[in-house]
TrEMBL record:
The keyword Transferase applies. One of its GO terms (biological process) is methylation. It comes from the Bacteria. One of its GO terms (molecular function) is methyltransferase activity. Keywords: Methyltransferase, Transferase. This is SAM-dependent methyltransferase. It comes from Pseudonocardia eucalypti.
């Protein structure tokens, strides 16, 4: 495993900073502040992304009956992680986290543990640029003859080319059986502030982040059955306790849940 580099900003730590966490360093906070100075909405996007994860995992475990989760590019643990949400509903849920950031893996060893005796929670050290390796390792834990919930939560912008990102997602989803699902969201390019922030982000030393169009987000779900409400701003995906006429403005990050048919 790589050593933790305290001199170069890392996306997982920057995201942790935006979410109000403490697992970040001055270089990460500087990079995060530089982005937020241009696009203040990014802080809300970070926090809404966790709510999107909670709502989608709850749907998958409670309504869709999924009992296996493959969370790729999981990031640093925070409140209400995938296994906690899933196992609270279905104690037998099996969750595999995938990441290659050394700080993420250090925290995973300490914090990503079962919340129930029936369940399984573990992690795979791998880069999502190597989907075949991820699938091979995940097969040691998950039964790929039964539905698997594949998750890519805001991480594929670090893949330099959109078509390559599509290929990565397709390789993982293609390895799963009918009835499996894909949950995915990405930062989108609808606002000038988002486009400018993303263009200047590499100046911080962090790995560049490529924004998606809404059409490109939808492209990840080609040939899948979209679960209502489809591809929408992540804060509009089945929001909790929203009264008629009070839906908040959509944010510049879109996602969806799709079912393999």
């Amino acid at each position: 495993m790589e050593e933790i580099n305290f001199d170069v900003p890392q996306s997982a730590r920057i995201w942790n900073y935006w979410m109000g966490g403490k697992d970040n360093y001055p270089v990460d906070r500087a990079a995060g502040d530089a982005w937020a100075a241009i696009q203040p909405e990014i802080v809300d996007i970070a926090r809404q992304s966790r709510q999107f994860l909670i709502r989608t995992v709850r749907y998958l475990a409670e309504e869709a009956g999924i009992r296996q989760f493959l969370d790729i590019g999981t990031g640093l643990p925070t409140l209400q992680n995938t296994h906690e949400v899933a196992q609270a509903i279905a104690p037998e849920s099996r969750v595999v986290y995938v990441d290659n950031d050394p700080l993420v893996l250090a925290h995973a060893r300490a914090l990503l543990v079962n919340t129930t005796p029936e369940g399984v929670t573990t992690y795979v050290e791998a880069d999502y640029h190597a989907p075949s390796l991820i699938v091979a390792d995940a097969r040691n834990i998950l039964n790929f003859n039964e539905p698997v919930a594949v998750m890519f939560m805001g991480v594929l912008g670090h893949v330099a080319e959109y078509q390559r990102a599509r290929e990565i997602v397709a390789r993982v989803v293609d390895s799963t059986p009918t009835g499996s699902t894909l949950t995915l969201w990405e930062n989108t390019n609808l606002t000038e502030s988002a486009r400018l922030a993303a263009s200047e982000y590499p100046d911080s030393g962090a790995v560049p982040y490529r924004l998606c169009s809404v059409e490109q987000v939808a492209g990840f779900f080609k040939s899948m059955e979209l679960i209502e409400p489809g591809v929408v701003p992540i804060n509009h995906w089945r929001p909790n306790r929203i009264e008629v006429g009070t839906l908040p403005a959509g944010i510049d990050a879109y996602g969806a849940v799709g079912r393999k048919v």
